[in-house]
Amino acid sequence: MLRLSLHRLLSVSPRGGGSCIMQSVRGVQTPPKLQGKVALVTASTDGIGLAIAQKLAQDGARVLISSRKQQNVDKAVRELKEQGLDVEGTVCHVGRSEDRERLVNTAVQKFGGVDILVSNAAVNPFFGNILDSTDEVWDKILDINVKAAFLLVKLVVPKMQERGGGSIVIVSSVAGFTPFPALGPYSVSKTALLGLSKALAPELSPLNIRVNCLAPGLIRTKFSSALWQNKSSLDQLTTALGISRIGEPEECAGVVSFLCSPEASYITGETVVVAGGGHSRL
């Protein structure tokens, strides 16, 4: 029986750092799967976004990270560069058109183009009964979580065309399938992102641009801390999971790197759920 052996010449733990990983197939070295690619990752100085940026860079991509605050960008860039990764950073508030344009232009200026977009930015200014939510809450959530994601896609598509195609991953949530308690407007915005990915995929396929979606479940981040910091609440949430524990950001990152790689060249319009077996169907 033919046995195909893959091993890493440089191993990197899920939480650890490390420069680009060279692989070996039957003793023949092959370049990292994202070598030569340029990636933009929004909201990528902490949590899932930072883990994704780190993984893409470990797999060979040159990565532009971004956040609303300069000090957060500087800290993340410094940490990743100390790991030998090829990253740069810029401030970007995705709700501002000038910031979105600067993000894309910075990638072109520093790295020569754009091959990968990971749209990860989201806000949630409301917690409570959905009927108590205001116009302002809905405007902010939909502007940042949905409209900004779409407008950023519009900006990167011409840049991807110039390079012969690309890959887009939109970060949604299992809340898009089953709304989280007291997070109604946020959950609705995540459902919209599932639809946005489905709508974009067939239109961009002729341009050799794939569009997929990531739907994380309960992941240990600052953004979701209200759901897991209380032990009794965490225990209640995790008992409903097939894998009865909270997830880690790194467990989302590998999925995104796969979706952006040639290994996923026949996958578009799909949503990959990383939720420990939680309910994930509309």
Short structural summary:
The protein is an alpha/beta fold and 282 residues long. It contains eight helices and ten strands.
* CATH homology superfamily name: NAD(P)-binding Rossmann-like Domain
Q: Identify low-pLDDT runs.
A: 1-16
Portion in helices: 25-40%
Order of the strands making up the biggest sheet = 6-5-4-7-8-9-10
The major beta sheet can be summarized as: 7 strands, parallel
**Count of domain modules:** 1
CATH architecture term: 3-Layer(aba) Sandwich
Gyration radius, in Å: 19 Å
Beta-strand proportion: 15-25%
Overall mean pLDDT stands at 89
Total helical elements: 8
**Which structural class is indicated by helix and strand composition?**
alpha/beta
Please state the overall shape, judged from the principal axes of the Cα atoms: globular
What's the β-strand tally?
10
The CATH topology comes to Rossmann fold
Query: What's the CATH class, please?
Result: Alpha Beta
What's the N-to-C terminus distance? 42 Å
Order of helices and strands: EEEEHEHEHEHEHEHHHE
Descriptive account of the structure:
The protein is an alpha/beta fold and 282 residues long. It has a single domain, classed as Rossmann fold (3-Layer(aba) Sandwich). It is 40% helix and 16% strand. The chain contains eight helices and ten strands. It has helices at 47-58, 70-82, 97-111, 135-162, 184-204, 225-228, 231-238, 250-260, and strands at residues 6-8, 23-25, 28-30, 38-41, 62-67, 87-91, 116-119, 166-171, 209-216, 271-274. The strands form two sheets. The protein has a seven-stranded parallel β-sheet, with helices on both faces. A three-stranded antiparallel β-sheet has the order 1-2-3, with no helix packed on it. The longest helix has 28 residues, at 135-162. The radius of gyration is 19 Å and the shape is globular. It starts with 5 loop residues before the first strand and ends in an 8-residue tail after the last strand. Residues 1-16 have low confidence and may be disordered.
